[in-house]
């Protein structure tokens, strides 16, 4: 796995964690921010052929 792929997957995992925390805390604004970030990261992964496992977040 190259550095780009590893870094992208790490950012996705971190963003999923942050999204879960925002949901648990009831912070609707932060949920929107984190969901947008996660959508962008998943789009970037798809554009570069990086497979992202479904985490259910």
Structure report:
The chain is mostly helical. It has helices at residues 3-25, 28-47. Helix 1 runs antiparallel to helix 2. It is elongated and about 35 Å long. The mean pLDDT is 94.
- Which of globular, elongated, flat, extended, rod-shaped describes the shape? elongated
Distance between the termini: 24 Å
Specify the number of helices: 2
Q: Cα-atom Rg, whole angstroms?
A: 12 Å
SSE series: HH
| Structural class computed from helices and strand pairing | mainly alpha
DSSP, total strands: 0
Low-confidence stretches: none
Largest sheet: none
**What is the percentage of strand-forming residues?**
under 5%
Helix content: over 70%
- Mean pLDDT equals 94
Layout of strands and helices, then pairs:
Elements: H1 3-25, H2 28-47
Offer a concise description of the structure.
With 57 residues, the protein is mostly helical. The protein is built from 2 helices and no strands.
Give a quick set of tags describing it.
57 residues, mainly alpha, 2 helices, 75% helix, 0% strand, elongated
